[in-house]
Structures are given as C-alpha cells and as structure tokens.
C-alpha cells in the first residue's frame, strides 16, 4: 500500500513539466526514504534524478518498496487536471497495475480521482558516486534559463568556462558568436539573486544547448540553480526543491573529434 | 561540432 499526500500539489505538477520533455517513460520508485526517479533520455546523453523526501509529504505511507512505471506525458495530462492550490494524493495498492491521483481543493469542496494505468518499463539504474567538482556555480535559475535560451538562437553548443574572472557561456553559429560572462556577485539584496563561484581549478566543457534548454523547464521549482563542473565528468545542473529534495540533470559533454 | 559522449560512459549500471 502506498499513499503520499502532498499539500503543495503544484510541486508535483512542476516536477512533471520539468522532466517530461527529456524522458518519455520512467519508473517512479517509492521507499521509506521518499519518492524518486532516475531516467535517461532516449539517446543516453542526459540523465535526470529526482528525489522528494518522505518528510516533505504531509502523509507518507509506503509499506514496501514499489516501482511504478509511468508514461510521463500521461502523468502530466492527469496532473494538469489538478488546480494549482490543490492537495495531491498519490495512491497505489501492492501488485496493482494502476495508480490513483486524488486532487482536493484547498477548502475540500471538490475532490477528484484520476486512475492511471501503469506500465512495465525495463530501465537501467546507474550508480552515481559522489564526486568532487572542479567548479561549482550557483546563480539565479531565471538568469541561467535566459542565457541558455539566448545562446541557442545563435548556436547549438555552449562552452562553459569557469575561471577566477567568473563563468563564461560561449557559443558560435552561422550568423556569429556570443559570449556571456557572469561574475561572482554576492552583494545583492536577496541571497537568491547572488552568483557564487567556488572554483578549485579552472574548467572548460562543451555541451549541447538543446539539453541545457530542456533542463531549464525546472526553473519554476527553484529560484537558484547549481552547476557543477569537472573536466572528466558530466555536468550536474541541480534545482533544489524547497524542504523536499532536488531534481538533478546530468549531461555528458561533447569532445573534440 | 565535436563528439557527443554518453552518460553510460561515465556511470555504470547498478
């Protein structure tokens, strides 16, 4: 038996919107720790890891570990029927081939049940060890989204370089080139507007902008984004989900031919 | 421009 009640149901709606462009089908794993998902895009270039910790739910009951295969577009269709202020409860019985999403309006005057068919998904689970990164950049998520969008109108790839001067996002295309440098800036009114660069050593990596743009669909989940870079690892683009966990996107770099 | 690496070149199946 599984029953997860999330008062801030809009979080779940935002999570689905953040990942459904990247991943079509995925297994949602429920355990005592929380509600999680790990999935790669169809070309195995990017990976998304989601964790919503059990403590973040108003009610969390998960009698045994359960993996539920879902088509994310179908989940999204269901969750779009929930109001932004609705309380969402996810329910499933052991061995059942369906999951139920229950939506309650804030004043309890409307209650809706949406039952969705589960599917068998044969997915690979990758072990991602903790790593020391050469550079970690924290910046406003809206700024990062803007940069990715702007650069993708010029080129297909972005070179992200971190030096003592700051973090530079560069691209080149048929019509020309573009460079955007963000300097460390801690002297802002609100901490979420700061750009903070922790650099062990300079690093420069190239990535496909298409994926970066897809990651920025998670912008509504968090005011800040953390970009962790090392020359021998995929970049990690992390959006913290307040009080609950995170959504992390891993993207393999491009290398010179 | 460049060769796109795969995530599975960095992380192994559990």
The side-by-side strand order for the widest beta sheet of chain A comes to 6-2-3-4-19-18-17-11-15
Structural class of chain B: mainly beta
- Helix segment count of chain A? 4
Please state the CA-atom Rg of chain A, rounded to the nearest Å.
Answer: 19 Å
N-to-C span of chain A: 52 Å
Gross morphology of chain A is globular
Amount of helix of chain A: 10-25%
Please give the number of β-strands of chain A.
Answer: 20
Uncertain spans of chain A, ≥5 residues at pLDDT below 50?
none
Q: What is the assembly state of the chains in this entry?
A: heterodimer
Instruction: Round the mean pLDDT of chain A to the nearest integer and report it.
Output: 96
Task: Note down, in words, how this protein is organized.
- The complex is a heterodimer of chains A (257) and B (14).
- With 257 residues, chain A is mainly beta.
- Chain A contains four helices and 20 strands.
- Chain A has helices spanning 10-19, 72-79, 141-152, 209-215, and strands at residues 2-6, 25-30, 34-40, 46-53, 59-62, 66-71, 87-92, 98-104, 111-117, 126-127, 135-140, 157-163, 166-173, 176-182, 196-199, 203-208, 224-229, 235-241, 245-251, 254-255.
- In chain A, a hairpin with a 5-residue loop joins β7 (87-92) and β8 (98-104).
- The model of chain A has no long low-confidence stretch (mean pLDDT 96).
- Chain B is mainly beta and 14 residues long.
- Helix content of chain B is 0%, strand content 29%.
- Chain A binds chain B through residues 40, 43-47, 124-128, 156-157, 206, 208, 233-234, 250-257, and chain B through 1-14.
Features:
heterodimer; A: 257 residues; B: mainly beta; 2 strands; 29% strand; rod-shaped
């Amino acid at each position: 038996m599984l029953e997860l009640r999330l008062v801030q149901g809009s979080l779940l709606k935002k999570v689905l919107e953040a990942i459904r462009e990247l991943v079509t089908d995925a297994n949602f794993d429920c355990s005592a720790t929380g509600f999680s998902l790990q999935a790669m895009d169809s070309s195995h270039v990017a990976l998304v890891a989601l964790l919503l910790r059990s403590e973040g739910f108003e009610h969390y009951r998960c009698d045994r570990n359960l993996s539920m295969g879902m088509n994310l577009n179908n989940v999204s269709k269901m969750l779009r029927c929930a109001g932004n202020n609705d309380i969402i409860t996810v329910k499933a019985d052991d061995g059942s081939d369906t999951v139920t999403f229950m939506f309650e309006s804030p004043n309890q005057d409307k209650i809706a049940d949406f039952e969705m068919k589960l599917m068998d998904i044969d997915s690979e689970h990758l072990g991602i060890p903790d790593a020391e990164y050469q550079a970690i950049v924290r910046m406003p998520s809206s700024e990062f989204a803007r940069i990715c969008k702007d650069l993708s109108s010029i080129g297909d790839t972005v070179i992200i370089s971190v030096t003592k001067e700051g973090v530079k996002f560069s691209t080149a295309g048929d019509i020309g080139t573009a460079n955007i440098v963000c300097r460390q800036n801690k002297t802002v009114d609100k901490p979420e507007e700061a750009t903070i660069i922790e650099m062990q050593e300079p690093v420069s990596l190239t990535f496909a902008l298409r994926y970066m743009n897809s990651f920025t669909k998670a912008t509504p989940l968090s005011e800040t984004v953390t970009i962790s870079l090392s020359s021998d690892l995929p970049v990690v683009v992390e959006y913290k989900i307040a009080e609950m966990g995170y959504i992390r996107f891993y993207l393999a770099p491009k290398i010179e031919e | 421009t460049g060769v796109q690496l795969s995530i599975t070149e960095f992380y192994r199946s559990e």
